[in-house]
Amino acid sequence: MLPRGRPRALGAAALLLLLFLIGFFLFGGDLDYGRPQPRGAAALDGDLPAGYGGHNSSDCDPPRPRPRPPKCELLQVAIVCAGHNSSRDIITLVKSMLFYRKNPLHLHLVTDAVARNILETLFHTWMVPAVWPQVSWIPNKHYSGLYGLMKLVLPGVLPPDLVRVIVLDTDVTFASNIAELWALFAYFSDKQVIGLVENQSDWYFGNLWRNHRPWPALGRGFNTGVILLRLDRLRQAGWEQMWKMTATRELLTLPATSLADQDIFNAVIKEHPWLVQPLPCVWNVQLSDHTLAERCYSEASDLKVIHWNSPKKLRVKNKHVESFRNLYLTFLEYDGNLLRRELFGCPCPLPPGAEQLQRALAQLDEEDACFEFRQQQLTVHRVHITFLPHKPPPSQPHDVTLVAQLSMDRLQMLEALCRHWPGPMSLALYLTDAEAQQFLRFVETSAVLSARQDVAYHVVYREGPFYPINQLRNVALAQALTPYVFLSDIDFLPAYSLYNYLRASIEQLELDGGRKAALVVPAFETLHYRFSFPTSKAELLALLDAGSLHTFRYHEWPRGHAPTDYARWREAQEPYRVQWAADYEPYVVVPRDCPRYDSRFVGFGWNKVAHIMELDAQEYELLVLPEAFIIHLPHAPSLDISRFRSSPTYRDCLQALKDEFHQDLSRSYGAAALKYLTALQQPRGPI
Amino acid sequence: MLPRGRPRALGAAALLLLLFLIGFFLFGGDLDYGRPQPRGAAALDGDLPAGYGGHNSSDCDPPRPRPRPPKCELLQVAIVCAGHNSSRDIITLVKSMLFYRKNPLHLHLVTDAVARNILETLFHTWMVPAVWPQVSWIPNKHYSGLYGLMKLVLPGVLPPDLVRVIVLDTDVTFASNIAELWALFAYFSDKQVIGLVENQSDWYFGNLWRNHRPWPALGRGFNTGVILLRLDRLRQAGWEQMWKMTATRELLTLPATSLADQDIFNAVIKEHPWLVQPLPCVWNVQLSDHTLAERCYSEASDLKVIHWNSPKKLRVKNKHVESFRNLYLTFLEYDGNLLRRELFGCPCPLPPGAEQLQRALAQLDEEDACFEFRQQQLTVHRVHITFLPHKPPPSQPHDVTLVAQLSMDRLQMLEALCRHWPGPMSLALYLTDAEAQQFLRFVETSAVLSARQDVAYHVVYREGPFYPINQLRNVALAQALTPYVFLSDIDFLPAYSLYNYLRASIEQLELDGGRKAALVVPAFETLHYRFSFPTSKAELLALLDAGSLHTFRYHEWPRGHAPTDYARWREAQEPYRVQWAADYEPYVVVPRDCPRYDSRFVGFGWNKVAHIMELDAQEYELLVLPEAFIIHLPHAPSLDISRFRSSPTYRDCLQALKDEFHQDLSRSYGAAALKYLTALQQPRGPI
Prior knowledge:
By secondary structure, chain A is α/β, with parallel strands linked by helices. Chains A and B meet through helix 10 and helix 21 of A and helix 10 and helix 21 of B.
């Protein structure tokens, strides 16, 4: 977001660019240079409903009864959001709003392409009852790079039949029911079109430091972090011409360095003071530098909206900042799943997909021993794709993305993985909301991880007793942007050369020519906790012979990788084809449009086996690469596996899932799937 | 808690005991058998403030303006709480209350000895501004076992100058500001002494099933999960005589199986209906079986208090239960640290210790590179001792408690530890509020852990960037109840025989005769992830010779354990004395009144070394036990250690802490501490 209320030092080039864009924007359209309408500044407090004034008036006027929050009315909210970081910020804002709300909400999210992608997925999977998120991407070139001015153009961007809207910055936090804010529209006179809270610093007085030349404003000016807009009247009043004219004129003499929508709003209001309805200060308590906010809330026991409009954000100095921070952290770490609660007493249509889901859940038998499995399979997890800034890899015909999933207890693998795999990665992380913040700090404090822009982290929020391993894999897979994917697991480290070798192999084997193949990367394991990673196949073989390394799961479950034929691999100089066999679960490289994982397999067991089976059913060739290898590092058994390994019910349920999987396989592939049935009926070893 | 509003099947013995206790209670005091005052039941709704009625009246009466919540008034709340599980429940209630409150609160916690111990520690460490917790243990024999009747005797138990109090069950959750409830006292007429919400089931009509014989009640009766009490008037009116008389009379003809305070309250009210002020139903929305609560909240958009008064608790069937559950889970998992926020606009004295703490924190220099270390050292973590039911070990003169600390990523060690150590344990767990709930489920689903009553789990709530290792050790140490403690770490498994061997050694070495000694348990490690634990010293030595085991940290930091003299240990038949040397950090058995750990060492490094140094300074003999051993299992480096190992600042800060520690040591032990200074100045290897 562009800065509000404070100049940020811009380099000369950036300044030029900004001016260019503004010029383009201002003069590119159909401007009507109508006469400005200068008028004296109206007394700020004069327009206030008594008891609702800025901090100057509230101690003398008697309180007027509050407007009643409208029961069940649909409230309209618009938020401008661009980029990865604002897409995270907006979630905390929305959580705080949902926590206190009692009304249905229509969210108008005005975004760039990055935020659109993130927010569409997020709200689609969040499934909050009585919330309609409408994510609008603004593709117009006029707008890109000008998100700081976007609030000015909302009357033109939002649906033409929209009459009223509350516009919010992404850095505000609600401490109250937004319907109370909505109710303030009732105080608007016939002429008023914009509701704003007074600016809570002396910025617009221009006396904060020498050579401080703020834009013109009425008195202390207004802050645009929270706006009530009468869109109908703005459109009628020719709002677009009005603000463009004012901006154009002011830009002739004023610097653009501090330019943001707020300056233009203030300049327009200075000229047309009857447009503004001042709002009670508690609806935008501004924790900016030089804030005078204390004058407001020291008298009001009820804070309504906190606005973190200092560049210092949570680290701003303020007498009560700890309380404000606690409120913010409350929602930052709040389990968003809990906000899926329905509204009472208001007709509450369910979000798309939710009804079908509820029907499916209702059909489950709670007495079924596998009830929790089936419930988990149906769970729609909230998904936040590209949780951290991410630069998509340049398009290359043989590029490969490493795909894996993890939870908190494997974070320490990430640095090593980054050292071993210099290419793009798509990782799904299974986290609570609070853990997602820990993860954020972990990446920020890691030099290795911060340096990588090509690793996409997708947060899948935790819900339910089982680790939804295949749902996680599918999220990571769906977000891989290269033509090929390496489907790995987080406990493996690839050979240092693997990334380059895979790309070369894909090219050499002409997979892009339509050859349908899965390239097998042989897997090994060390049982030693301290371990020096082999830098070549020769070194690996030496370690294998010395007993320091083993083929993967050699001791417990050799069938899982036996078809890879490690003996042949030792000698192989060229890729060789192997045949599918029961229980085969190699790590493979495939085109990214490969079949998805079967999401019925949650927790532990059979999740990869089923996927390889489906690749085979679709007649993927299985080609083992002679120089490729990955090594599994030892780790303590995860909580879930310890919990469920001992459970006979777990094994029974897994068997039931396998049977159902096979029935589906037969349905899809007919007689060709018979061989899997035969294989299934063989006695099984440990999971 | 005793059941409310629903009979629970009691065995004949329990029934007899209950009757005996009641009889004892009723007839043991100075009872005045004054005449009962029968009167017709007043019409329930007649006494209601309009708009505040039970669900029968609220749809016709026009709403009356709400009483204003009292600004800054101190609100009095009483909660009866007994045992480990209620001590957990009460925290969720208190969190929900604190979240919405805007007033100072005085909490009167009426407890048994277990809950007193837990809650005193919890509130002392929670340090919530403007909350005065007063934990009263009820030692009177009359009362013990009668917690279900405790609410009746509150007028006698609470401070005699207390005029009004809100009484809450531990199974209610607030969804609103408690001051609004307090404000309802204003509706009491001169005669009214008790405010109650109507019972939201037909229980007292006695028609729920055949042979259902409820106690007498006015109409549908009242629920006692939320009570407003005018204590002054109750005392004046001779409340104690009143209810004892009614109860005595009714017990002549009615069964005591369903007996709880609620029945007696209702019987008294039936007799004296003018005593009661009916409260709006939203202040006690009862999710009992057969609940009619929907009639209440389907019309009120504002739910105030949810009451989980079904034995099914969160699994109760109800149209809106998911919403209620979400509210409950919100506070169950809410980070209690965030509730330490101060109140605005009310004079807000700090809890004991908080002022001193704030001064110390204010003196820290934010620019100091070690600022975060020093901040963490000063952090007072909330501590919940004996988070799960725990049976103190029987008093035995040579008994030893294993003391250790862990966080979530080591939970999977607990089962193995239980198998290796059959004796008492005192474990500190460093968890978030949400993780504490995961931990609870983990123990519940583990047969091994559920079977153990002698393992005390103490939750220390997370706050700050460093793992406060020595604070955790001190919490676990302070809660050990045997005369000796074995100071271990969570990654070690003891020899199967260690517990018995230690007790025998303590007896044999006559440590209880005043010999000041620390028994050294030699430590080994395996780097192999899969590992068969040696069942004897001979087997251990064989594994050592085979290279499958090593002495602990042999590869990285042999100085840490070199003074144990492993060569001598191989041959030793008897305990032998060793001398302290720089960097020595053995695992030892000491009397539980040993010196505490130095809590300045947070994160990783030097935390045990400092403790052993202090033992040596206090002239503990170091005696190595010839048959004792523990083995360290491999694990991935923890998040914190990976993060900080690479940081030069971290090393510098650790050095600064060490220097300060030594200065303190010199101050305490004078010239005798000189040898530690010399040792400190030697070059150091890795942490």
